[in-house]
Write a structure and sequence with these properties.
With about 280 residues, this protein is an alpha/beta fold. Helices cover about 50% and strands about 10% of the residues. The protein contains 13 helices and six strands. Strands 3-2-1-4-5-6 form a six-stranded mixed β-sheet, with helices on both faces. A hairpin with an 8-residue loop joins β4 and β5.
Length: about 280
C-alpha cells in the first residue's frame, strides 16, 4: 500500500488500534513486522497511518495478536479498505486538515451526541450564525476565506438532513440559545431552525435552563461520535492548539458518563422545545 502525505484522523486511528492490539499481545514492532514480511520502518508507518494496510494483513495481524473480537476485526478491515471519496475531499489543501477529519468522522459515525454550552451546535447553525462566528474568531480572514468555512459547515449537516441520517442527540445550555451571535433577527431564525430540525424522529434536543441549580458542567462541551463498535468511538473537543480527538478507552468512558450526566440534568425534549419556542417569541 502506498504512503500518504497526510493521513486523516480515521487512518491514524486504524494504525493506533493495530498498535494497541500488538501491545496487548506483548509483541514488539519488529516482531509484528516479521509477521507481515516488512521491515520495522514500514511497520511503524502502518501503525502511524502513513502507510495503508490490506484486509489480508489486518486479519493476519489480528490472528497473530490472538484477537478474537470478530466485530472489531471486521470494523478495522472496513477502515483499512474503505475507498469513499466524500464531498469533504474537495476542501483538501484549502481548509485545515481538521475540517476533512471531522466531516469524514461524521460520515462514518453510527450516532452523534453533542453538548454545547456557549454556541449552538454546528449541525444546527444557520449560515448567518456560522458566518458571524467564523468572522469574529478570525477577523483577519477575507470574506472568501470565511465563506469556505461556512460552506463546509453547511455541507456537514447532511449527516442529519441527508438521505441516510444518523441518530443525533444534543444537549444545549440556555446560554447558547440566548447569545445574539449575529443579531436578534438571526438569533430568532437560528432558534426556529433548531425547532424545525428537532421535529425529525432521529433528532433529540434537550436544554439545560439557567434555572437549574448546581450546574457545574460549563466545561463539558463535546462531540461524541459512535464507531462501528464501542472501542472505535471518538470524542472531539476544541483545544487551545486546535481540535483534539480523544480515543483512549478510559477517556471515552469518562465522556460517555459525562454525556449521560448532562443529559439527565437537562429538560425533557418537549419542555426543551417549549423553552426554545418561548425564547424565539421574546426576540
Amino acid at each position: 500500500m502506498g504512503r500518504r502525505q497526510q493521513p486523516t484522523a480515521r487512518q491514524v486511528r486504524l494504525g493506533l488500534e493495530l498498535r494497541k492490539l500488538r501491545e496487548a499481545a506483548g509483541l514488539k514492532a519488529t516482531e509484528a513486522a516479521g509477521l507481515l514480511g516488512v521491515n520495522s520502518v514500514q511497520m511503524s508507518q502502518i501503525e502511524s497511518g502513513i502507510s495503508g494496510v490490506s484486509e489480508q494483513r489486518v486479519r493476519r495481524l489480528a490472528a497473530n495478536y490472538a484477537c478474537s473480537d470478530e466485530k472489531l476485526i471486521d470494523a478495522l478491515v472496513v477502515m483499512a479498505t474503505d475507498r469513499t471519496r466524500g464531498w469533504w475531499e474537495e476542501y483538501q489543501g484549502i481548509l485545515p486538515a481538521a475540517y476533512q477529519d471531522l466531516a469524514e468522522l461524521d460520515h462514518h459515525a453510527r450516532f452523534r451526541h453533542d453538548v454545547a454550552v456557549i454556541h449552538v451546535p454546528g449541525l444546527f447553525q444557520t449560515e448567518d450564525y456560522a458566518r458571524a462566528l467564523f468572522a469574529y474568531m478570525n477577523p483577519e480572514f477575507p470574506d472568501s476565506e470565511v465563506g469556505l468555512r461556512v460552506e463546509h459547515r453547511m455541507k456537514r449537516r447532511v449527516v442529519i438532513e441527508g438521505p441516510a441520517p444518523i441518530p443525533y442527540e444534543t444537549v444545549i445550555h440556555e446560554a447558547a440559545l440566548r447569545i445574539n451571535v449575529a443579531g436578534r433577527a438571526a438569533t430568532r431564525a437560528q432558534l426556529t431552525r433548531i425547532l424545525e430540525t428537532s421535529e425529525a424522529a432521529h433528532v433529540t434536543v434537550r436544554v439545560i435552563p439557567f434555572a437549574l441549580d448546581d450546574f457545574a458542567g460549563a466545561g463539558s462541551t463535546m462531540v461524541h461520535l459512535g464507531g462501528a463498535v464501542a472501542r472505535l468511538e471518538t470524542v472531539v473537543r476544541d483545544a487551545p492548539h486546535g481540535t483534539a480527538f480523544v480515543d483512549s478507552e478510559a477517556q471515552l468512558e469518562h465522556f460517555r458518563k459525562l454525556f449521560r450526566k448532562v443529559k439527565e440534568e437537562a429538560l425533557p425534549p418537549q419542555q426543551s422545545r417549549d423553552l426554545i419556542h418561548q425564547l424565539a417569541k421574546e426576540l
